[in-house]
Automatic annotation (TrEMBL):
Protein name listed in UniProt: Rhomboid family intramembrane serine protease
TM segment ranges: 15-35, 120-141, 148-166, 172-192
Membrane topology classification: Multi-pass membrane protein
SUPFAM superfamilies, per the entry: Rhomboid-like (SSF144091)
GO biological-process terms attached to the record: proteolysis
Species this protein is from: Nocardioides lentus
Chief localization: membrane
Domain of life per record: Bacteria
Location in or out of the cell: Membrane
Amino acid sequence: MSNRLPTHGPGRDTWVTALVWSAGFVGVLWVLEVLDQVLFRGGLDGYGIRPLDTGAGLAGIVFAPLLHGGIGHLVANTVPLLVLGFLILLSGVARWLAVTAIVWIVGGLGTWLTGGFNTLHLGASVLVFGWLVYLLLRGVFSRRVGQIAVGVLVLLLYGGALWGVFPGQPGISWQAHLFGAIGGGLAAYLLARDDARPVPTQVQPRW
């Protein structure tokens, strides 16, 4: 009798979980934006990041990625959020939460410090850029072939978006894009140590 060695890679349950969490998170953003448009007439946007404001503007670090300046703004973020979030979630919900927390904090603080007086910053694009850079760099740090391959695919799909970290387009928070991307790079570096560790496997005896 021979017992099979454990298989590697995400199974069906992992794919389903990733899909549910990815769609669920984006669904929450849509619910919030519809409520904002219908009930609050855009009033929730005031909870975005107001740079160097130590009151509500600082609290905006918590709320800004959940808010959008209209349906069109959210539409532009929806597909990248679904795709990039799903790819990270294939590594587990805990990993997605860790990456998201790092990007959220670094992106928010960086925007609050550098966004400029009398400006308001909001939108989940900070997460888009953070998740994008995380996926691009995690394979570089972990040296895992599969993660490098995913990074190349992501680069082909969304690499052009990285120009958004540079100033130039009016009304676009390049600071949120830049510091979200920095947060994603930091997450890739910090979390790659876990990815690089060899996964112990128990070899089953053959009888």
